Amino acid sequence: MKLDNYRVVITAAGRDFGRSLAIRLADLGAEVFLSARSLAAAERVRDEIHDRGHQRVHAFACDLTDPASISDFASSVARHTDRVDILINNGSRYLDGPDLQSASDADIIDTISSGATGTVLTVKRFLPLLLNSDKPDVVTMVSACGTAGHHRSDAHDAFYAAKSAQAGFTEILSKRLRPQGVRVISLYPPDFDNADPLSEEWKTTPRESKDPLTGQSLVDCILFAVAQPRDCFIKAFHFEQV
Description:
single chain, alpha/beta, Rossmann fold, seven-stranded parallel sheet, 7 helices
């Protein structure tokens, strides 16, 4: 799939899977608007993409726990473009530890704010730009932890709470935005391997039935969903955990 006519916003793109998304979608021709909590982290990824010969990439700071920061991010993007075709909600702080008492109150608040409140406010702020597109998609990286009854992760209870909030939000959002032509696509991966997209490992990582889920396959799922005709609303991808 080529993305030459797509304008894509990606949150938390300064490292890990968000960085992979930014690099791969830029490689496919998309104009990418990427954010990270620190501007320096976003600019590092922007520069990596520039080094690959892609100039249509923009870096911004966005703290998903701060409503003013989210608003500033959306306003800054709006100064560059009159539309957004794909919004990818990748940002959400991970918090480890199966013991509720193991995390501080501040860490719990930060985790739930970034994943739950941050996702809601990001969609709210970018919705006007999405509605200006003739192919608007909202993609959210939830987690298997957002699936009812899931218990196989060592993530903290607050992370489970944030992901369950994302799941509930995207579920109702899908129904309420469909009349306006906006597709809402959620991914519920378990822990997955994410090779550096600039390394040879990205191309050579085994992807057989016995292997863990990879970042490469998650990118492919997103590309598959957004490439479908506009009458095809793929609400969610759920993955078998090995």
